[in-house]
C-alpha cells in the first residue's frame, strides 16, 4: 500500500522516506522504518480506514462529532479493568473537559459531577490525591485546580482549601530550589511547573510557611532557586530533562519553559536560564519528516501527545524571541513560525484520528483520553498565534506577564478547513483564557494571609 500514489495536493516531503539515511542499522532504526511504513498510507490519505472528506491539500477533515462523543464517553463510568485509573481521577476530568472545550462544547455542564469527584480527593492537610483516600500529589492537584478553573464559578473556587494548599506546597519545597511531587516523593521539573501554575492561579502567598524545611537552608520564598533548578535541567543536547543529569524529554521541556514563563517575562527569564539556540536546535529536531509529528526524545518515534508537549514549547519560545510585548496587540515584527505547522497538521489529521472517535499516539495505537486531549491541544496551539501584551488583569507585578497572553487565529497557509479550527487555550495554564483570569481574580479578591 505504501507504494501507491498519494492523493493530489500532498507535497513529496510528506509522502517519501527521508532522502538521507544513516547506514547503521539498529533496533531503533528498524522501529523507525516500521513506523514510517505504517504512517505513509495515512499521510498519503489512502488508508482504507480513513473516511474523509479530504480537502484540496489532501488532508482529511477533523471527525469532530466522533471525537466529541469519545470525550463525553471518557467522562462516564469505566469497567473494572480500568481500576488503575483510580489514581488519575483529576486527570480524567481535566483531559475530558479540556477536549470538550477545545472542540466547542460546554464543559460547565459537568460542574456538580466534578465537585463530587474532587471533594473526597482533597486532603485536609492540603492538596488533592488521585482519588479518595490517596495522598496529595502535585500532578493530581494541578489537574484538579485546572479542572475547577474550566468549570468555573464561586463554588468551584471555594472548593479548594487554599490555606492548606499553601502549607502543603511549603512541605514539598527543597533546599536546591526544586519541589517534590508528593511528601517523600521524587523531585523533578513537573513539580516546579505544577506549583507555579497552582500559586499563580490561586494567588497563594510566595513566602514559605514558617514550618517549611526549606527555610533551614536559607530559602524564604516558594520561588527561590526554582529558575536555577530548571537551568540545571538543560542537557548537553540542548533539551530539558526531568531532573539534573538525565535525558532531555519533550514533556519536561514544556514544564520547564512554562514554569519559567510563569516566574517572569519570557524574553528576560528564558535567555537568562537557558541556552536558547541549543534549545531551538533540539526542539526542531523533534519534528520528523515525512511524518510531520513530534517525538519526545532523540531516536524515539513520533507520538501525537508531543503535539502539545513539544508543540506547546514553541509559543513560549516565540514570545521570548519576539521580545518586549506591545500595547494590547501582537508584536509588529515577530520571529515567525519556528516549526512546520503544515507537517503537524498533516500528522494530526492524517495519522492521529481513530475512525471510531478519539485521538491516538500513532496509527496502530488505540485512542485514549490523554492523547485525545493533548493531540487536540497541539492542533489548537498550531492554529492560533499566542502572544503577550503589556496589559494584564492581575494586580500582581510578579504574574503580570503570565496573565498578559492573548491569541488570534492564524489565517495564512493552513492545510486544514476553517470548520476544523479549535478553540484556543492559555499556553501556560492549559485552560481557556477567561477561565485562568476568572480564577486568579476571584482569589486575588480573597487574599490569604501567611
Ligand atoms: Zn503519547
TrEMBL record:
It is an enzyme of class 2 (transferase). InterPro entries: FTB, PGGT1B-like, Prenyltrans, Terpenoid_cyclase/PrenylTrfase. The keyword Hydrolase does not apply. This is Protein farnesyltransferase subunit beta. Catalyzes the transfer of a farnesyl moiety from farnesyl diphosphate to a cysteine at the fourth position from the C-terminus of several proteins. The beta subunit is responsible for peptide-binding. Keywords: Metal-binding, Prenyltransferase, Repeat, Transferase, Zinc. Residues 62-430 form the Prenyltransferase alpha-alpha toroid domain. GO terms for cellular component: protein farnesyltransferase complex. Its EC number is 2.5.1.58. Its cofactor is Zn(2+). Pfam families: Prenyltrans (PF00432). Binds 1 zinc ion per subunit. It catalyses: L-cysteinyl-[protein] + (2E,6E)-farnesyl diphosphate = S-(2E,6E)-farnesyl-L-cysteinyl-[protein] + diphosphate. GO terms for biological process: prenylation. Belongs to the protein prenyltransferase subunit beta family. CDD domains: FTase. Heterodimer of an alpha and a beta subunit. One of its GO terms (molecular function) is zinc ion binding.
Amino acid at each position: 500500500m505504501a507504494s501507491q500514489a498519494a492523493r493530489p495536493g500532498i507535497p513529496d516531503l510528506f509522502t517519501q522516506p527521508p532522502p538521507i539515511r544513516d547506514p547503521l542499522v539498529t533496533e531503533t532504526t528498524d522501529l523507525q522504518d516500521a513506523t514510517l511504513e505504517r504512517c505513509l498510507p495515512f499521510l498519503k490519505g489512502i488508508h482504507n480506514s480513513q473516511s474523509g472528506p479530504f480537502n484540496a491539500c489532501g488532508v482529511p477533515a477533523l471527525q469532530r462529532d466522533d471525537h466529541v462523543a469519545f470525550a463525553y464517553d471518557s467522562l462516564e463510568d469505566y469497567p473494572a479493568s480500568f481500576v488503575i485509573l483510580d489514581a488519575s481521577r483529576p486527570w480524567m476530568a481535566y483531559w475530558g473537559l479540556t477536549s470538550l472545550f477545545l472542540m466547542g462544547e460546554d464543559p460547565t455542564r459537568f460542574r456538580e459531577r466534578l465537585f463530587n469527584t474532587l471533594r473526597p480527593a482533597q486532603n485536609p492537610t492540603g492538596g488533592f490525591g488521585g482519588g479518595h483516600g490517596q495522598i496529595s500529589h502535585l500532578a493530581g492537584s494541578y489537574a484538579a485546580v485546572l479542572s475547577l478553573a474550566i468549570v468555573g464559578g464561586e463554588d468551584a473556587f471555594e472548593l479548594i482549601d487554599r490555606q492548606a494548599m499553601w502549607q502543603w506546597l511549603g512541605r514539598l519545597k527543597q533546599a536546591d530550589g526544586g519541589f517534590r511531587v508528593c511528601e517523600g516523593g521524587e523531585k523533578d521539573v513537573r513539580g516546579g511547573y505544577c506549583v507555579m501554575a497552582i500559586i499563580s492561579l490561586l494567588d497563594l502567598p510566595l513566602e514559605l510557611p514558617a514550618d517549611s524545611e526549606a527555610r533551614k537552608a536559607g530559602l524564604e520564598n516558594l520561588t527561590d532557586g526554582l529558575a536555577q533548578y530548571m537551568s540545571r535541567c538543560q542537557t548537553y543536547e540542548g533539551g530539558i530533562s526531568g531532573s539534573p543529569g538525565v535525558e532531555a524529554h519533550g514533556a519536561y521541556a514544556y514544564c520547564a519553559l512554562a514554569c519559567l514563563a510563569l516566574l517572569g517575562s519570557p524574553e528576560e527569564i528564558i535567555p537568562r536560564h537557558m541556552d536558547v539556540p541549543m534549545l531551538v536546535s533540539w526542539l526542531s529536531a523533534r519534528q520528523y519528516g515525512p511524518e510531520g509529528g513530534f517525538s519526545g526524545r532523540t531516536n524515539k518515534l513520533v507520538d501525537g501527545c508531543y503535539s502539545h508537549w513539544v508543540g506547546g514549547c514553541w509559543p513560549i519560545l516565540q514570545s521570548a524571541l519576539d521580545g518586549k510585548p506591545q500595547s494590547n496587540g501582537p508584536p509588529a515584527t515577530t520571529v515567525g513560525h519556528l516549526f512546520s505547522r503544515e507537517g503537524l497538521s498533516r500528522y494530526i489529521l492524517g495519522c492521529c484520528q481513530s475512525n471510531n472517535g478519539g485521538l491516538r499516539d500513532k496509527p496502530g495505537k488505540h485512542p485514549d483520553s490523554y492523547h485525545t486531549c493533548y493531540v487536540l491541544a497541539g492542533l489548537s496551539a498550531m492554529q492560533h498565534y499566542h502572544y503577550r501584551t503589556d496589559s494584564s488583569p492581575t494586580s500582581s507585578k510578579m504574574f503580570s506577564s503570565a496573565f498578559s497572553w492573548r491569541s488570534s487565529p492564524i489565517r495564512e497557509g493552513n492545510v486544514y478547513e476553517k470548520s476544523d479550527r479549535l478553540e484556543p487555550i492559555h499556553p501556560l495554564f492549559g485552560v481557556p483564557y477567561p477561565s485562568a483570569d476568572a480564577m486568579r481574580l476571584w482569589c486575588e479578591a480573597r487574599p490569604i494571609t501567611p
